[in-house]
Amino acid sequence: MFQHLLVPVDGSDLSANAADRAIAFAKETGAQITFFFAKPEYPLAFYGEGALIDPTTPDRFAEMAEEQAREILSEAEANAVAQGVRVTSLSLTNGAPWESIIAAAQQVGADLIFMASHGRRGISGLLLGSETQKVLTHSKIPVLVYR
Predict the structure, then answer these.
(1) Every domain of the chain and the residues it spans
(2) How many CB atoms lie under 10 A from the CB of residue 43?
(3) What is the strand order of the sheet 32-39 is part of?
(4) Using a CB cutoff of 8 Å and minimum separation of 24, what contacts does 72-79 make?
(5) How far apart are CA 136 and CA 147, in angstroms?
(6) Residue numbers in the chain where pLDDT is lower than 70
(7) What's the CA gap between 132 and 145, in Å, rounded?
(8) Using an 8 Å Cβ cutoff, are 25 and 5 in contact?
(9) Of 142, 139, 132, 136, residue with least CA distance to 10
(10) Domain 4-146 coded CATH 3.30.565.10
(11) This prediction's pTM
């Protein structure tokens, strides 16, 4: 059975529900969890007539992303600890969250990625894309999608 779950969280209700279910799954199976937060890269600004200028520096942006990661990860960790599940957390910066999810799973030696899906189907799923779909397509590690 699975021994180490990587559970991406982003602060949404959907990912919080998936994290809660992952905690219950880990408790039932005796697995440990690594909660993961994909920090965004500093956005490139386009300057020109009518462009908005963002006064945030790259360093300040990185600090804000780290604060957000700590807040989201600490809440998920506290829920797991309260249920008696072994837990760690990790955050990485990457422009493509799906790539960082797979990299994190490999880095921590996870044998299952347990993640939420927004459930977009049809044209909206095709046009908007899906981080979950990209993980499913590219991961060599099994992925459990919770909806």
Answers:
(1) 4-146
(2) 11
(3) 87-93, 32-39, 4-8, 112-116, 143-146
(4) 72/9, 72/10, 72/11, 72/37, 73/9, 73/35, 73/37, 76/7, 76/9, 76/16, 76/19, 76/35, 77/35, 79/19, 79/20, 79/23
(5) 14
(6) 44-55, 119-129
(7) 8
(8) yes
(9) 132
(10) no
(11) 0.87
